[in-house]
Amino acid sequence: MAGLNKIIVIGNVGTDPEMRYTPNGNPVTSFRLAVSRSYTPADGQRREETEWFTVSTWNKLAEQCNQYVNRGRRVYVEGRLKSSTWTGQDGQTRFRNEIVANQVMFLDRAPAAGQEGGEPEAGSAVEGGASDAEDLPW
Fold first, then answer.
1. Any domain includes 17
2. What distance in Å separates the CA atoms of residue 82 and residue 132, rounded to the nearest whole number?
3. Which end of the chain has the smaller Cβ count within 10 Å, N or C?
4. What is the pLDDT of residues 44-89, one digit of tens each?
5. What are the percentages of helix, strand and coil residues in the chain, rounded to 5?
6. pTM score
7. Number of domains in the chain
8. What one-character DSSP code corresponds to residue 76?
């Protein structure tokens, strides 16, 4: 029986995207996403908490996100959750969760002043095959 690993988040981009290439030449773009929620506990004081996610996009989606995503934009991200563990230079074990996105949708208008034309408007989606290096067929 097949499993399901799917995550959907809506939030504000907290960092400008960083694009890099795998040794095989496949583009990968990453950015951080802040997802906030408000709640009122029993003491009646309204509170807000923010979760930060690292989002990775691959191939054509990586190129599109590198071009159109900027800090502050509100986006919908859909993909799968990937966990990584490694040992840092200090010998400490590190752990990270990241979203490997297969869809990014812009929920706000593109910045107007000083930006290039052709940017996706609110409701525009960019999609691509989410992958990672071991999943790539070439």
1. yes
2. 10
3. N
4. 999 999 999 999 999 999 999 999 999 999 999 999 999 999 999 9
5. 10, 50, 40
6. 0.77
7. 1
8. E
Please report, for the domain that includes residue 67, its CATH number. Answer: 2.40.50.140
Residue 84, CA distances (Å) to 2, 79, 102, 107 in order: 22, 16, 19, 29
For residue 35, the model assigns a pLDDT of 96
CB-based burial, 34-54: b 16+ in 10 Å, e otherwise: eeeeeeeeeeeeeeeeeeebb
Is 68 part of any domain? yes
pLDDT, greater one: 119 or 33? 33
Query: Both tokens of residue 50?
Result: 């923010």
Say if 123 falls within a structural domain: yes
The per-residue pLDDT for 22 is 95
Taking a C-beta distance cutoff of 8 angstroms, is the pair 94, 87 a contact?
yes
